[in-house]
Model the fold of this input.
Amino acid sequence: MKTTVKLLFIAALLVMTACNNPNQQVEANIAMYTTVWDEVINEGNLDLINDTNFDPEITLISSPENVVGIDAFKDYYSNFTTGFSDPDFSIVSIFGQGDKLVKHWKFKGTHSGNFFGIPATGKSVDVEGTTLVVMKNGRIAQEQDFMDNLAFMAQLGIDPLLNAGNVAAVSGLYANFGTGDIPAVLAAMDPNIVWNEAEGNALADGNPYIGPDAVLKDVFERVIGGFPDFTLNDIVLHNMENDKVLATLRYKGTMKTTGKKLNAQAAHLWTLKDGKIIGFQQYADTKQLHDVGTK
Done:
């Protein structure tokens, strides 16, 4: 009887050891990880970004701020599935230790759609990089990508080093707007700036607004009057060709007349000449802008 009990104990111990074998766990993590990302990117199956495969607090270490949570993570990667046709994502090599993985990957595709606010260029990209991954209980919990962003932007026809002063000028404008220094915002504009609001936006009724005074009176004052707590958030600047800067961002605020909350995606295309802003074109989620103003 004692021998039987002893054998059962040893068998159970062996099973537990096999289940907890670090190498087996790493292999399981790698198998799950490679399958999920192959289907997400190559097949466009964004629904696999769920709490079965990803920790609810999945975090992408990024700048200027991290992407946290399944919904935000899914929204982030939707830019790749809608921005590129004929995607070809492959993992060159992957290895791990404990709950950490390191992968070397390659990505090819044709920029045929909107990619983080960058309109389609029709250009092909062929880039590679490395990702540090943290797993948690068999699910993906954290990622951090490293790649040659200069080469990537160059393949899209965007020189991030070109006209860096333009980016600085637009960045300064946003900073001044954020602190309420409207005179400094207007000072960044050319006297004959041509300002256009997105079609479908209520503020587009005066398009185009010519000159800083018109922008102040017919745009800024109306925005602040309608949304006393209006802010610009998650601003990311992209240096473009031909003295243009593209900003992707979000509008947040509370509509004064309805009390409804605004959290809308937007993009701003700025055109500059000799350091002054001569043109502005807004692109925005005009349906949400309309809905928050409807009782």
Helices lie at 2-19, 22-42, 70-83, 149-155, 164-178, 182-187, 212-226, 286-292. The chain is about 35% helix and 40% strand. The radius of gyration is 25 Å.
